[in-house]
Design goal:
By secondary structure, the protein is mostly helical. 77% of the residues lie in helices and 0% in strands. The two termini are 34 Å apart.
Length: 419
């Protein structure tokens, strides 16, 4: 079912920016926001599902006898699927409706989750977890495209709202996973539960989200649009891509292996580890504020400050007190800066760096650059920790890389972005 070209702007005077719904639709802003909340709820389920496997990795490792580095690869391999599918999804959106691509993505993600429990060893489990990333790439790219096209003047804040719901899922997922793991004494139980929940979200979106909202192609302000680059090959996009690669190594090295560090390095129980790591999601609840900063201040200031701050937090997370509450507070701050500020604004700046007709492809570039690096993040983190200890792994992959990114962010040219 071919649709209008996904990157083409709508005619002037139509769509949400003008406050006028397309003919025949009661497309009020309040109804559109309600439908967007349904999409955000599906993203929360995605986030909860994503946070499950790192929590369960210790139990999977004991059952199958995987090494620490192999276990680390399993916790982040879904990002390889994200990297592979990011750019193709941007092109796919020029051929099919966003809603169709979104529903297919959620279906692929949920099916991959369900199949994981049937794995007989490392190779097929690796494939199933990678497949979940393909589905997530489709869902994430579509949602960034919808946010960027509907909420044109508040792109970073709109993408920030996605991360708020990511935070809700990331906060509730480990807690629910820890509860189900303790109750049923099997890591299969939480995987099955969240796969079924994903299928439920497919039905809800199919019934409630209308094309006049999901397929909006709003015209951006002409003057601002001319500031964006006419091609993806430009200075800002190249720098943002490098920053996204570093971000992928840092964010997913942390979220993929920090739960294993808590359980094996500090000997936390599943419930205690789930409690601490859930605060990463709680920090992501501040994403709208992080997006607001990105909409109001220079990308150089926002990204460099955030990366330097995250560098300090990364060091502290692998040193100091072993008590639960200090760990929870550090994890909360890490989520607020890493997920709530850096991730949100990298996504938004990729879109702002180019003209509106390239918005879907720019969001695909962001997804690919972040998650291509993230695919190796857990393996790298586990490898360093296995040979040199958790402290050095944190210092190199979590702290030092952020400091390098902070310096690189100072070379951005905000005047050439459609801010």
């Amino acid at each position: 079912m071919k649709t209008e070209q996904g990157d083409q702007p709508a005619a002037s005077g139509q769509g949400p920016g003008s406050g006028i719904a397309p003919a025949g639709e009661s497309g009020s802003r309040s109804v559109a926001i309600a439908m967007y909340c349904v999409l955000l709820a599906s993203y929360a389920v995605n986030a909860a599902d994503r946070q499950l496997f790192p929590l369960l990795a210790h139990d999977v490792r004991l059952q199958y006898g995987f090494s620490l580095s192999d276990t680390g690869l399993l916790t982040t391999i879904f990002t390889l699927g994200l990297a592979v599918a990011g750019l193709p999804t941007g092109f796919l959106l020029t051929r099919f409706s966003r809603k169709t691509v979104l529903l297919l993505g959620i279906g692929i993600f949920s099916t991959g989750t369900a199949l994981t429990i049937l794995a007989t060893g490392f190779p097929d489990m690796l494939v199933y977890l990678a497949v979940t990333g393909i589905g997530e790439a489709m869902q994430l790219t579509v949602m960034i495209a919808i946010a960027a096209n509907y909420f044109v003047g508040y792109r970073a804040a709109a993408i920030g709202s996605m991360n708020v719901f990511f935070g809700l899922g990331a906060f509730s997922g480990p807690i629910a996973g820890g509860f189900l793991l303790t109750r049923y004494q099997s890591w299969h139980a939480p995987m099955i539960a969240f796969a079924v929940l994903g299928y439920g979200m497919i039905a809800l979106i199919a019934l409630t989200v209308r094309p006049w909202f999901s397929e909006t192609h709003r015209a951006a302000d002409a003057h601002a649009d001319q500031l964006g680059a006419p091609t993806l090959l430009n200075r800002n996009t190249v720098i943002l891509t490098i920053l996204s690669v570093i971000g992928g190594l840092v964010f997913f090295g942390f979220t993929g292996m920090y739960p294993t560090y808590l359980r094996e390095g500090l000997h936390y129980t599943p419930k205690a580890a789930g409690f601490v790591i859930s605060f990463y999601g709680a920090g992501a609840l501040l994403s709208i504020g992080g997006g607001w900063l990105g909409d109001r201040f220079s990308p150089r200031v926002v990204l460099s400050s955030a990366f330097f701050g995250l560098s300090c937090l990364g060091y502290l997370c692998f040193h100091g007190s072993e008590a639960i509450m200090p760990r929870a507070i550090l994890t909360f701050l890490y989520g607020a800066i890493g997920s709530g500020t850096i991730y949100v604004n990298l996504a938004a700046y990729h879109v702002k760096a180019v003209r509106s007709n390239l918005s879907s492809r720019a969001s695909g570039m962001f997804v690919t650059s972040v998650y291509a690096a993230a695919a190796a993040a857990g393996y790298l983190m586990g490898g360093i920790a296995g040979h040199a200890g958790w402290a050095l792994a944190g210092e190199i992959q979590i702290s030092l890389l952020c400091a390098i990114a902070g310096v690189l962010a100072l070379t951005l040219r905000p005047a050439r972005m459609a801010l």
